[in-house]
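P.,

For your records, the input lines for the assembly:
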Amino acid sequence: MQNNVLKLTGITKSYGSKRAVDGINMTVPQGEIYGLIGRNGAGKTTVMRMITSLCHADSGEIELFGATNGKELREARERMGCVIENPSLYPNLNAVQNLEYYQRLKGIPNKQIVQKTLEIVGLAEVGKKKFKNYSLGMKQRLGIGLALLNNPDLLILDEPLNGLDPMGIVEMRELIKSLSKERQITILICSHLLTELSLVATRYGIIENGRMVKELTAEELADACQSSLSIQVSDIPKALSVIETQLGTRNYKVIGEQEIRLFEYMNESHVVNQALVSGGVNVLGISKVEDNLEAYFMELVKEEK
Amino acid sequence: MLNMMIADTQRIFRGRMVYLCMGVLILLISMHVFGVGQAGAGDLYMMASGATMPFYLMNLANNVTLFVITIVALIVTDDFSKGYGSNGTVKNVIAFGYAKTTYFFAKVLMAVFFATLFYLVHLVGGTLLSTLANGFGGEFNLEFLRSVWQPASLQLLLIIATTVFLSGIGFIVRNTTYLTYVAGAWMFIPMILSQTFHGNPLVERLIQHDLSFQLVNITRLPEITQGDASRIFLIAAGYIIVGIAMGLTWFQRSEIK
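Structure tokens returned:
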């Protein structure tokens, strides 16, 4: 049985009269790359801030490595590395000095760890350049370097792809994958770049208006994001009757007033078209649709509204 | 907490700010050393010797100078604007599993350490410089050390209390600039009140318990009695307790942005 590294139960947080997080339940199993998805203001960062104790939950329980309160929970946080919002390091220090500061602060005896960490995040050659003169991408990398310094079992990354150029995004994606695969680090990551997220995440949590709308694995998402034929017709009941009688399938979904999604006959659109036309249905359009995380997310959010 | 203090000390000594502050302090002392005759006795050629300089500095070290020492210490150990504010490094420390109480005391102790360091540089540096320039001019013995130690230790205690109190406020206002304004107001308001309500017993009694007033008053006492020392100790302890209670409570309740 897979152990849970992190479990949130009924977490709630309000700012004044606004409920930012509303009874969220969430489970992050060991070894997974958990992608937390939501629109701006959906509550993703607030959830991450509560996990890292930067703000307090009004109610509910946070279980981290089995610890739920007080000193135990604080000690459990020592096994965690995180970059929340912007990476915050001392602007007048260079990469080595910044990491050495946190190495001392955490009491890590291994002096090689700083150089090794810089190599992992690709900043080994950056020299004496001060943090304040770094590009956003370099800042992100050093932030992740800091999060990796204590060899964490759980890594929390809030928008780690922000400010990265296409090359940087690819490198960051590979880094995240290798951290999960080679170092068995469980990763909780949130990003607006859903396509990028879908390339690394093995599990997803979708948040909308402070509520967890859905939690699913990558396999479940793949099943949910199956390909379909999008058929635009003027008369939905008549078209459905033709599909059921002529094509012999009920594997469809009606979307809106003019669209049917048919999950069969994907490579035989001409057969579908012919059946509908011969059944007296006016076909306005027919095309193949490949759903992805982005489309799935949009649909879920629409339903939630 | 010790790890954090060691890391902070190394970080601060790696930066330029601490050396810049030391340089300015030594420059100010030099001005005292070479200008003391003019300011003190009206005799251009009379310069302070090493033996008289500590008392001169403690006397001249009016609350402005001493407040500057405190503020400089707070700026050097600055984590209010860069750390505890938005985009601050405090979130790294708290997310690493550090308790907020530990963080608070580590930062306050760092400010106290640097305030003490600057005060000692001010006093010892001034004495050494005037000895080099004008000779010691007296006997360097235990009696001399004792005569310096009594007012200096009490003055240092008041500086520590000021630093702790202002650190507490720093955790509330979260900005070194605002903190400087608060310190300035704290320094000048008793002076203004004292001038405006001169002779008013209630105001005078209130001001007697003000820390910034005591910083100066201590060196004006012809002799420090046991009662004076106890009063100063109690005032300092009061400000330390209030500063810690205020800052820590606020910090514990506040969210880190």
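Two observations worth noting. Residues 7 and 63 of chain A are 5 Å apart (CA to CA). The radius of gyration of chain A is 24 Å.

Regards
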